Amino acid sequence: MNVTGVVESKSTISEVKRKTKKNLFTKVKKSWQLYVLFILPLMYILVFHYYPMYGASIAFKNFDPVLGIGGSPWVGFEHFKTFFESYDFVRVLKNTLGLSLYSLIAGFPLPIILALSLNYVYSKRFKQAAQLITYAPHFISVVVMVGIIFMILDPRGPINNFLTLFGVKEGINFMGEADYFKSIFVFSGIWQNVGFGCIIYLAALTSVSPELHEAAIVDGASKIRRIWHVDIPGIMQTAVLVLILNMGSFLDTGFEKVLLMQNPLNLSASQVIDTYVYNVGLVSALPQYSYAAAIGIFKSLVAFILIIASNKLAKKVGQDGLW
Amino acid sequence: MNTKIGESRGDRIFTVCNYIFLSLLVLSVLYPLIYVLSASLSSTNAVASGRVWLFPVEFSLLGYKTIFEYSKIWTGYGNSLFYMVVGTTVNVVLTILAAYPLSRRDFYGRGIFMFLFVFTMMFNGGLIPNYLLVQDLGLLNSRWALIIPNALSVFNVIITMSFFKSTIPNELLESAQLDGCNDFKFLFKVVLPLSAPIIAVISLFYAVGHWNSYFSALIYLRDASLFPLQLILRDILVQNSVDPSMMGDATQLANKIGLQQLLKYSLIVVSSLPVLIAYPFVQRFFVKGVMIGSLKG
Known about the structure:
The structure holds 2 protein chains of 2 kinds. Chain A has 16 helices and no strands. By secondary structure, chain A is mainly alpha-helical. Chain A has a single domain (about 85-315), classed as Orthogonal Bundle (MetI-like fold). In chain A, helix 7 crosses helix 10, helix 12 packs antiparallel against helix 16 (about 290-315) and helix 15 packs antiparallel against helix 16 (about 290-315). Chain A starts with a helix and ends in a 7-residue tail after the last helix. In chain B, helix 12 packs across helix 14 (about 255-295). In chain B, about 35% of the residues are buried. At the A-B interface, helix 1, helix 2, helix 6, helix 7 and helix 8 of A face helix 1, helix 4, helix 5, helix 6 and helix 9 of B. Chain B: Pfam families: BPD_transp_1. Chain B: It is found in: Cell membrane. Chain B: It comes from Neobacillus niacini. Chain B: InterPro entries: MetI-like, MetI-like_sf.
């Protein structure tokens, strides 16, 4: 009895398997044209995003261009150890985290304030002009942006000219001082992106129900109270979403801009993980591919953990996460 | 929000403060742009001695004249235009090819593919493996190095996909299928004509990205005749290295320094002009793109 039962169930299992296989085949066949469309993008993603993940295995090897990625000898965590024990590690990590945190904290509230402020402008023309002007710097390229920073902060530039009015005699070489680097980086970033960053909040504000405002007005709420009790709760969800998205790219710190602003005088404040990888791996006369790749992996991992953690955190405080 | 009647005193003060705050903000955004423009229209002498602060001093077009005679910049302009046009075309085609199947609920394996795509936004192999890949493919120092490795942005795939999902109703597909329309035909004859707004949005995102990028060119290109404008700008604006042939007849040192400064201002204006002129006309598309992007796929 038992034996036959087992046999029976086995045969049904294989039958079910055959059926699903057949289903799978018909399903694929039915929409084969979609697969044809999809093949090119899929290949791109596999070659240019997943193959480099395999290539990152050189972090655990001593990469030799002659032997290739697969043939180079394994060395385990040696490169990671070298990095963690090096003098640069602490400095680079400190700069990366410091710059990221500074950008995140200083850059987060201003777009919200701008959106709230624009929301209470009645003159349509003024509002449009303000939007047009504040969005514009977003489209300036990094190179030009850094060029403008250099000129404005030049020892003989307008900022220094302005400071002479207050008795500062000699022009300050802002770019040559490590102490100023982070602030210059962060506030020029805000200058460039505050307008564009506020679009998303403006959109969120339009979806705040006008009835809530009417009710608040009937109850005698002032505008400040309405901002505080109606508008801000209305855009909370969006703000959390933006914060999570920013956390995901937390460690990227506008690498291209840092690289341009970097010079030997401010290096102690401007060397971040990405520029370090670039300098060690591609610029130096003896490129240390494996070592640089190990540092790159370290960064990717930390970034990955950060985005997962911030998503969890968002769910914990009662907001919808990204997934 | 539109009830202006019966504003209390506090509200009126708030409104005034609000206008003052916004005006200050707008002015502080505007000032550096005006300064650069004015300086580019001033004389070398005025620029070198730092006399320009708002309006052009001793109006002159010398900076622009010098740039127009400098062939490297025009090669860069041409190259950038090429990268932008070809790159954007490749980008848009691939993005649509990826986004359309992913938007179809009956696309078997959609979940897995979606995961494969989204995961790349959170984790990547890093700079060095990407560089080695481009090297192994033999793309180093070729125009394709700036186009193929950046052929697709997953972010744009997601916004395009959510556009398809929300604007192409399933009934449309079903009725087309009843009429014997296959997936290819449906995409080209039905979906694409309905997708002009999203194609405009992603084209703009991609095009501005290509025009403004310098880093890929910096690491992948060696041959100066392939350099995009941004890389040439980097040499002049950031690295401060100006080709002596550019300085022409400016013999005195003071003149040279002044001209070098002046050149930078004019260069900034010339290189940013196409984007900034087009910008007011296409602004609403960008805004739309940000809105679509903020919807969750």
